[in-house]
Write a structure and sequence with these properties.
2 helices, three-stranded antiparallel sheet, about 140 residues, mainly beta, globular, single chain, four-stranded antiparallel sheet
Amino acid sequence: EEPYSADVEPALADLDESLQPVRDAWQAIKTAVDHPVRLYECMLSANTFGTEGRVHQDIADESARVDHYTALIYCNREWKLAWAGETLFFDDQGEITGGVMPKPGRTVIIRGDPPHVGRSVSRICPTDRRVLVFKFWAVR
């Protein structure tokens, strides 16, 4: 209901026991950041062949981006280079500044909400690309 101001960590704590790995992942992310944070969104995305990502930023308010974080945890058990599905990051001129292959268990913490996109998987990819996403704010 309040996408950027909510605190969903209590709801995360109330998840079914079968989702303990999601809670554990959040605890690991919180530990990796050197100051208090507030989780406002947690989701699992799954992209199949033909599902095109779009370059975007998570936060519309440019001045708020400095305190914004997104953590991506790639959840597939296997990933091959030929399957594509990389996450790309861009500068203000639309040039690629970085990229991440969705290797199993790889975790990326993005600070400041740069323009980014999750690219589609290739047509030879036999599965969907699964990413556990945590979006949160630095609490100062």
